[in-house]
Write a structure and sequence with these properties.
Elements: E1 3-14, H1 53-65, E2 69-70, E3 73-74, E4 77-80, E5 90-93, E6 100-101, E7 104-108, E8 120-132, E9 136-139, E10 144-147, E11 154-160, H2 167-184, E12 196-206, E13 216-221, H3 224-243, E14 251-256, E15 261-267, E16 277-278, E17 285-286, H4 289-296, H5 303-313, H6 318-324, H7 328-338, H8 345-363, H9 374-385, H10 391-404, H11 408-415, H12 423-436, H13 438-445, H14 453-462, H15 469-480
Parallel strand pairs: 13-14
Antiparallel strand pairs: 1-11, 1-12, 2-6, 3-17, 4-5, 4-16, 6-8, 7-8, 8-11, 9-10, 12-13, 14-15
Helix pairs in contact: 2-3, 6-8, 7-8, 7-9, 8-10, 9-10, 12-14, 12-15, 14-15
């Protein structure tokens, strides 16, 4: 019997706000434990929650970007459970009236190669709701300590339909959500800081069966790659269990990245176990059209829309768009130059994704802090197009521009990279290369066109790399065919 996996994800994303969701207490990361707390966070008697409007702006923006219906009214509920990371012993969340209903996420699966765009498909969403984050438990050899700095941070939960069937699709889903949230400024989605976390619900069933199998909720997935690896392991484990005739019981399991396997934690709770009821301290929120329209106007062009436009308007190859588009700052930087010289967009893109990213990586600088601007890119492209320098020398010029902040023409003059010879001198060097290398000459005349490359190198060496390779190629051919 053949089996298939059915996967749904619950993605928790912290909304970027200066303060926490129900109090003015500062939100942040990296502070001394239990310093970002106040009576509301600690659940002290008499402390009452007050709604953070910026958190509502963030989830509305996320919902519009992910094609959700923004409901006119949402309300707040208490999800009751007893655990050390929740001082109130309940979480304020949204049970039956969330802010965002439905929606979908466009994903791109990996292509056959780096040069080929993969399949695009849409993963359906159930809802997105807003809640307060909980604290963080730190486990040691003989005890555990709780840090409430994260408690109360604005957190939205993006719940997918059971619409995925592999670890690759889950990986693409999380990657797409992360890019959209960063593009929109909703969250930085830094998983190392806990700003984005995911739980996976995984079940396996015989191919052709409509009913879902018993699901395992997989926790402790601390990276997008970890989600993919944990899901793939759990699919294999459940499939093996079913083939042996064993029954899968709904439960919560954890992913052990060090051991590369999953292990059981506890039986899975159902909704009724949480004893949901409306929060008596928070009023429902009405979201009118004016509010929605204001947020809609703030949403930028989204990643896949930008990718399609770059492919069409600038005729860029996929290898360039796949590097530019995931980074909004980098793609905007490219387009600032490309708009001024659309015909040179591919050359500009090459310098950005190859030379600029290389220099940024080696120097440890950020894009905002580096000296390269659109003007620098255009000056370099112009110098190559005019034949002032070769493409090979352009790499050297780019490195100097990055270090000094000078434009290409200044670097070229300072380093003496302009050709100090005319075409007759290049032709003389070509004749010398032909006389000194009879073997490739014979090969070329015998029909091996690639043999010409063996003559190109000596001429470029004689010109100290300043000769135009295209001109050299043409002159060698002319001399050989005389």
């Amino acid at each position: 019997m053949e089996y298939e996996a059915v996967i749904g994800l619950e993605v928790h994303v912290q909304v970027k706000c200066e303060s926490k969701i129900f109090t003015r207490c500062r939100a942040g990361f990296g502070h001394e434990p239990n310093t970002l707390v106040d009576p509301v966070i600690l659940g002290l008697p008499g402390a009452l929650p007050v709604m953070n409007k910026k958190a509502l702006d963030g989830i509305i923006k996320a919902g519009i970007a992910l094609n959700c219906e923004i409901l006119d009214t949402c309300k707040w509920d208490r999800k009751n459970y007893f655990y050390p990371d929740s001082p109130n012993n309940y979480q304020i969340t949204q049970y039956d009236q969330p802010i965002c209903d439905g929606g979908c996420v466009e994903i791109e699966l990996e292509g056959e190669s780096r040069a080929v765009m993969g399949e695009h498909k849409k993963i359906a969403l159930t809802r997105i709701h807003l809640e307060n984050d909980v604290g963080k438990l730190n486990h040691f050899a003989e005890d555990s300590l709780v840090d409430y700095n994260r408690a109360g941070t604005s957190l939205m939960e993006i719940v997918s339909e059971p619409d995925m069937h592999s670890g690759d699709e889950a990986f693409a889903f999380l990657t797409a959500i992360r890019q959209v949230m960063i593009y929109c400024g909703v969250s930085d989605c830094d998983m190392e800081k806990g700003q984005m976390r995911a739980d996976a619900n995984i079940s396996v069933r015989p191919v052709g069966q409509k009913e879902l199998g018993a699901k395992i909720e997989l926790k402790n997935l601390n990276s997008i790659t970890g989600v993919k690896n944990g899901i793939e392991y759990e699919i294999k484990r459940q499939t093996q269990e079913l083939k042996k005739g064993r029954v899968i019981t709904q439960a919560t399991w954890r992913w052990d990245a060090d051991q590369g396997r999953t292990e059981s934690m506890r039986e899975k709770e159902d909704a009724h176990d949480y004893r949901y009821f409306p929060d008596p301290d928070l009023m429902p929120v009405r979201i009118d059209d004016e509010w929605k329209n204001r947020i809609q106007a703030e949403i930028p062009e989204l990643p896949f829309d930008k990718q399609r436009r770059f492919l069409e308007d600038y005729d860029l190859p996929y290898t360039i768009t796949s590097v530019l588009v995931p980074d909004r700052l980098l793609s905007d930087f490219f387009e600032e130059a490309a708009k001024q010289s659309p015909k040179q967009a591919q050359a500009i893109g090459n310098y950005v994704v190859n030379d600029l990213l290389r220099e940024l990586s080696e120097s440890g600088q950020s894009l905002e802090a580096c000296a390269i601007t659109a003007e620098h890119l255009l000056s370099l492209v112009s110098a190559v197009e005019k034949g002032t320098i070769t493409k090979q020398l352009a790499k050297e010029v780019f490195t100097e521009m990055f270090k000094s902040g000078e434009l290409a023409d200044v670097v070229i003059d300072r380093k003496g990279l302009k050709p100090d010879f005319d075409e007759s001198q290049v032709e003389a060097w070509c004749q010398e290369a032909i006389n000194e290398n009879p073997r490739p000459v014979e090969d070329f005349k015998s029909g091996n066109d690639k043999a010409l490359n063996a003559l190109l190198g000596p001429v470029m060496k004689k010109s100290r790399g300043k000769a135009n390779p295209q001109v050299v190629n043409q002159l060698i051919r002319k001399l050989l065919l005389l």
